[in-house]
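Priority: medium. Attachment 1 of 2:
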């Protein structure tokens, strides 16, 4: 197979970044209009949280399947399938007429996203060398804060003007065009950037059960996955509930009419989306650059950067929930998100460096299964359920949700500790993975 040129590699990266952008717009548009859905379908906070949990449960359960397929089949075809499915499911939510139907569409979004999220990082790993992988993956994952921000801003703006159904319909359409575009890219050979390409864009088909169980015996992989699980718990809980919390706690949403609530959510989503975009952009680039720079001096740098970032975010996560000032809230949430986002490039670089190229998609699928099963699949429902219990005990909706959100700084502190434990094993595990691949 002729080598892929630098220009072609960056074109593929740009397209994958754009797809990831749409991915997160579609994911978080739900949270932007959640309070409007709550009013229309008269659901509890627990049921509102369950909509995100349903998506994530299906997402994590189908990820191993796509990981297995991604190490065997044509990867760009699997990615195109996933994009098309989640886009149709997002747009289809506009036509639901009950909570059960809406719940079903969110499960289909989970199937589609599992295909893309599991396989895309392995393409990037095969297009760019390990020396630039931290920065390259940071560039890819910068779509998370921008896409999330646009999900809140566009979802809030469209939902506030035309209703929540229009929001789902409009944000779901662009993915169908991107599903076609990815089919015209050139797929790299597995392990190509490590000098291990097998001459084909397809896998050997020799991923065995002992390869999967062997992943669990890589200490840096295990600790990194544990740290990212805790981080994902925090990020998922904050992102899902923040627009609702801002409207209730700071804008008077508890007693607002339906029309007033739509305007409040527009304001809350725009503010939260704006700080997510700026903090996420800065955090992702700073984390990726700092990790690559420090890596030249300390081979555990990727893990240490992640751990320090999580610990630095703890006081700001707590302050955002404790404060009664909207101005202080915005500043605290900005700094919390800045530190949350700067681990995306380094943490995924760790996962790619400590497993052999031939089983990277499988390793990512196991990682996705664990991080979402114990992370953001739990947090939206758990926070919502805690809020319901506290409301039943006499707290106002805003106070109850704020108290429930206090789970996040505690879990964030645990994430920082776990990442730092990964750093103790990273250099040795990366060396073993490269030696095994060459053998």
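Attachment 2 of 2:
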């Amino acid at each position: 197979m002729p080598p892929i040129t630098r220009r072609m590699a960056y074109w593929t990266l740009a397209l994958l970044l754009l797809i990831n952008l749409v991915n997160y717009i579609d994911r978080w548009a739900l949270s932007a209009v959640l309070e409007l859905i709550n009013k229309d379908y008269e659901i509890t906070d627990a049921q509102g949280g369950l909509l995100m949990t349903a998506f994530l449960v299906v997402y994590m359960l189908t990820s191993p399947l796509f990981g297995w397929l991604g190490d065997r089949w044509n990867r760009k075809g699997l990615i195109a399938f996933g994009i098309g499915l989640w886009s149709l499911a997002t747009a289809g939510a506009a036509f639901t007429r009950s909570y059960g139907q809406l719940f079903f569409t969110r499960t289909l979004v989970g199937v589609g996203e599992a295909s893309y999220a599991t396989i895309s990082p392995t393409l990037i790993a095969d297009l760019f060398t390990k020396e630039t992988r931290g920065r390259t993956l940071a560039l890819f994952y910068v779509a998370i804060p921008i896409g999330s921000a646009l999900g809140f801003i566009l979802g809030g703006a469209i939902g506030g003007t035309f209703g929540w159904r229009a929001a789902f319909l409009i944000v779901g359409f662009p993915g169908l065009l991107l599903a076609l575009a990815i089919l015209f890219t050139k797929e790299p050979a597995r392990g190509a950037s490590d000098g291990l390409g097998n001459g084909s864009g397809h896998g050997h088909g020799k991923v065995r059960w002992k390869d999967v169980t062997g992943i669990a015996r890589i200490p840096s992989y295990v600790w990194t996955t544990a740290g990212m699980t805790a981080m994902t718990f925090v990020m998922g809980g904050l992102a899902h509930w923040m627009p609702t919390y801002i409207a209730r706690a700071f804008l008077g949403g508890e007693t607002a009419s339906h029309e007033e609530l739509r305007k409040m959510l527009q304001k809350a989503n725009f503010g939260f989306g704006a700080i997510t975009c700026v903090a996420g952009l800065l955090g992702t680039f700073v984390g990726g650059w700092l990790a690559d720079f420090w890596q030249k001096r300390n081979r555990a740098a990727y893990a240490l950067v992640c751990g320090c970032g999580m610990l630095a975010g703890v006081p700001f996560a707590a302050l955002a929930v404790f404060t009664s000032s909207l101005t202080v809230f915005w500043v605290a949430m900005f700094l919390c998100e800045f530190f949350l986002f700067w681990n995306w490039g380094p943490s995924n670089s760790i996962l790619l460096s400590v497993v052999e190229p031939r089983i990277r998609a499988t390793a990512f699928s196991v990682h996705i299964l664990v991080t979402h099963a114990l992370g953001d699949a739990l947090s939206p429902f758990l926070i919502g359920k805690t809020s319901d219990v506290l409301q039943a005990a006499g707290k106002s909706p805003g106070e109850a949700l704020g108290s429930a959100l206090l789970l996040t700084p505690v879990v964030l502190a645990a994430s920082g500790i776990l990442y730092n434990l990964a750093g103790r094993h990273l250099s040795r595990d990366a060396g073993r993975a490269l030696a095994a691949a060459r053998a």
